[in-house]
Amino acid sequence: MGKQKKKKSEWLDWLKALLIAFGLAFIVRTFLFAPIVVDGPSMLPTLHDRDQMIVNKIGYRFGDPERFEIVVFHASDQKDFIKRVIGLPGEHIAVRDNVLYVNDQPVEQPFLTEYNNEILTNDFELEELPGEYKTIPEDQVLVLGDNRGNSTDSRILGMISMDQIVGKTSVRYWPFDRIDIMKLGE
């Protein structure tokens, strides 16, 4: 009888341990970190289709996005997008002849390269984008894909509310030959 009671106790211990592990995994994935798979070419050459990354969900609970961070946001109820923050609240953004202007001052974009010698970004002014803002509203950001010729971003979607942002990405863990910690502006 003692042996059977001991086995039952072991099973309960294992069950408790598994429930705690699943509970912790749920909490971590829901509130702290989550995986995301890049879908499509909109962030080339920085991120490739099917790259797998970690989304830090807690970073913006304590601070706001910085220019050039790569963020994941809810584009719709079913779809999350991954793009780069280009414009911050209170700023005026324009692109002329592939030069980014923030409040009429040129800003380097070191992550952009001559991508097949094509025009990287068609010219635009903030006022021409959905919402027709003169400056980016509070609690919103302007995002663009690095592959500017093939990206659904703020030029189509308009400004992205901070409420839509899931978190920022900075760690690529797959494929193994491209494991990387992305630095701001890379």
Automatic annotation (TrEMBL):
Membrane-topology descriptor: Single-pass type II membrane protein
Protein name as it appears in the record: Signal peptidase I
Catalytic activity, reaction form: Cleavage of hydrophobic, N-terminal signal or leader sequences from secreted and periplasmic proteins
Cited InterPro entries: LexA/Signal_pep-like_sf, Pept_S26A_signal_pept_1, Pept_S26A_signal_pept_1_CS, Pept_S26A_signal_pept_1_Lys-AS, Peptidase_S26
Keywords: Hydrolase, Protease
Any GO CC annotation of this UniProt entry: plasma membrane
Domain Peptidase S26 residue range list: 11-174
Family: Belongs to the peptidase S26 family.
Known EC number: 3.4.21.89
A GO molecular function held by the record: serine-type endopeptidase activity
One Pfam family from the record: Peptidase_S26
Subcellular location(s) per record: Cell membrane; Membrane
Residues at the catalytic site: S42, K83
